[in-house]
Automatic annotation (TrEMBL):
Organism per entry: Triparma strigata
Superkingdom per UniProt: Eukaryota
Cellular component per GO, a single term: Golgi apparatus
Positions of transmembrane segments: 24-47
A Pfam family hit: Nucleotid_trans
InterPro entries in alphabetical order: Nucl-diP-sugar_transferase, UDP-D-xylose:L-fucose_XylT
Transmembrane helix is among the record's keywords: yes
Stated name of the protein: Nucleotide-diphospho-sugar transferase domain-containing protein
Keywords: Membrane, Transmembrane, Transmembrane helix
Molecular-function GO terms, alphabetical: glycosyltransferase activity
Statement: the UniProt record of this protein carries the keyword Glycosyltransferase: no
Domain Nucleotide-diphospho-sugar transferase: 330-545
Amino acid sequence: MPSSHPIFQHARHKKTGSRGSRKLPYMLLLCICCVASYYLGMVSNWITSQEDLTASHSAVLSADTKMSVQIEKLNDEIKRLKSARIETPARSCPECVVCSKCPTCPTTTATTGNTGTDTAASPTSSAKPLAGSWVSQGVVSTDSLIDGDIGFSLGIPPFYMQTAKQKIDSALVLHHRAPKSASISNPNSLDDCEEVDVVVTKRDSPGHCLVVMEHYQSYTLHRYMRLNRNAEKGGDNKASLDKNFEKVGRGRSTDGSDQFKSPDIATQKKHWKHLVQYFESYEEVSAKLDAKLKKIVDVNNDVIVMVANAGVIELLANFVCSARSRNLDISNIIVFATDDVSREVVDGLGLTSFDGSRSFPAPPEEEARAYGDQTFQKMMYVKVVSVHMALSLGYNVLFQDVDITWQEHPLAWLRNNQATSGDDFDAYFEDDGARSLRYAPWSANSGFYYLKFNRRTSYLMTNLLYESDNILVSHSHQQALSSVLNDHSSQYGLSLKVLSREQFTGGKSFHHDSPFMLSWMKGEVSPVIFHMCWTLNKDDKLKYMQQMGEWFLKEGGDNDYVRKMGKKAGEVCSLEPVITCHFSDKPSAEVAKCSDSPRKDKNGKIFWN
């Protein structure tokens, strides 16, 4: 291509141009590089900052992950500790009382100290925290609470599950937080307790619950049951889970029955008239009584009070004759005789009679035909009045029914027992033997009891007098007494003890404890007294006492005979028991063994077989 071509001419022109013209491309390139470098730096810084943010976020996420793991581990540990705390009672034998599924406890050698607790049987003595201010739970033996080995005695008789005849051996103990320390030295004791509140309760149904609530202190049990307490007669008033809770009293049973009904207004007014009669005559009658009691009271300020009408006078005579045959002193007995016939016989027996008829409605002369009938109720009221009046005059009172015999003097036994055991109760009662709701928890028999005179016992009898309309409603002196005993034990601190059935034996043992009765009839044991209670009527009482060797009236000494003897009634006594067989299936003296006699009960077992 010729050099004259325009391209070549242009090239030559550039090369031979001015100096500034030659530098222009280099400056432009430098500017482009600077701009590129700036933006590359911006991009690099942005990338670096994003990497830093990413790294920081990753670090935060890593820390959060570690914390979550730690929290999860802590939660697992809390669950494990809770599970261990719940399972501990099942693993720790002394606390199995609070667990529904308890393993068989290993055999241990336990020692019982003055607190009545098994110190060696407990695998741990550390207190376990409970809800609220409860810091520990444990168990103590029921025997220690009843017998007094724990520092006090409840005075109640032993309790057996009726279905299995198994004694309840342990009681649950909850410890409140101490004012200065929550430390409990031994939860299975009362060593750290300054005060003990005892709740005596029985499971009446599978759905029975006990609530212990932190609140103002109350010494009264509040009962609620799922039932319709206002159901019409014959309606469904049994307890069931499909019903609402209703407030109920102590006499309500799960079957809907109520053994503690309030007296209606008509019954109350009838009772008011009885009270008016008693208090209007009190000053005059009590003065006459005091004059007689001062002549017979013994050196311990004890008097024995009995009540009799003509219908039971042979039972009274038998008591007198049996005591004299055993050389037992009965000189401090006074008998509230409710009619002329009985007063004459009492005087003839050499006892002190008292006519208190101005103080109460006159009972009939005949005996009660059955437990709870009208005659029975009226005589029960006289029993309240007689003890109240004697106690109000300042005497210690032993009250007893007429269907009793002594093997040894009960007052001497009580004094000796108190001296040896340290017992010092306000009142002592025979164990009735019944474990029904209306007599709970003491099951105190109202036919044999001893009251030491003090403010607590005198007010006990005053309140029983005030509430004697309950006798008219319940047809039971004993039920009314049981109710007042509960109230006064809680409100006024009345202390009472129920005596052993093996020493103060009654009709429950006669009818339902053949091994004990057999031991007695063989002479292997001997109770202090025998009370022929738990028996339908007087005729049966006479027959039972006649065949067991506790009858001391000469042959023919029936009610009519004793009545006719009058002031010569002392002549009916026999120095030896007069034994007559009646029934082969009831306890009888070994010398008679009555095995050839007919049975009393259709399927009765021969006693001496």
